[in-house]
Amino acid sequence: xxxxxxxxxxxxxxxxxxxxxxxxxxxxxxxxxxxxxxxxxxxxxxxxxxxxxxxxxxxxxxxxxxxxxxxxxxxxxxxxxxxxxxxxxxxxxxxxxxxxxxxxxxxxxxxxxxxxxxxxxxxxxxxxxxxxxxxxxxxxxxxxxxxxxxxxxxxxxxxxxxxxxxxxxxxxxxxxxxxxxxxxxxxxxxxxxxxxxxxxxxxxxxxxxxxxxxxxxxxxxxxxxxxxxxxxxxxxxxxxxxxxxxxxxxxxxxxxxxxxxxxxxxxxxxx
Length: 271
Known about the structure:
The protein has helices spanning 4-8, 24-31, 37-45, 48-59, 74-82, 90-101, 110-123, 128-151, 165-172, 186-193, 199-217, 225-242, 249-264. By secondary structure, the chain is mainly alpha-helical. α6 (90-101) runs antiparallel to α7 (110-123), α8 packs parallel to α9 (165-172) and α11 runs antiparallel to α12.
């Protein structure tokens, strides 16, 4: 399916943009006038992490986070947690069922189990860009996690998700680059970024790697769904950093630190 009219009407975005003429929410709303039902399900995959987070809260008997913009309405997610059925993506249905029956399928935290199942779901799609992006994103997050775990003497195997060769190397290799740098050039770039003590600069560097991956992925794509997805994911990056204003910058920065603390419980690092 061609998206000529939709893509032609999109404003240009660049890496250095700080003021947006189009928000991610507005982008998705406009896209509804052009997109097929099948393609919309693919686009929704990129927003399901919020549904994952909401489901985890509900399963843990926490109050729902009403600020989360989920693919499925909160009431529907609440109903699924009470009585799972297959109206939601299969991985989410299976996770809820496993959680309630107390037999998660991987020996990692529930959060990591759900992340693992989510990436597996993305990599099962027939769309090449969705699969490639999912694997790249998972590898990047796993590498950052493994480097942090190694630095602070934590168990890497308990933090890494997925069963691809990249994940297996992170769990088993004792070499500095986990034996991955030769086959994955971005490994050395990530290792260099992780030596930077400035969390904002580090996060921005990681986002630039994703940005460059998306640019390269659609070099010869002009009006396809791939171009739509690439634009959307880059818009998400720009929107995130546009919030780094004097008024909200400290809040965003503290959220980064809090995510870092919760992931590894490095309480002493931030006292």
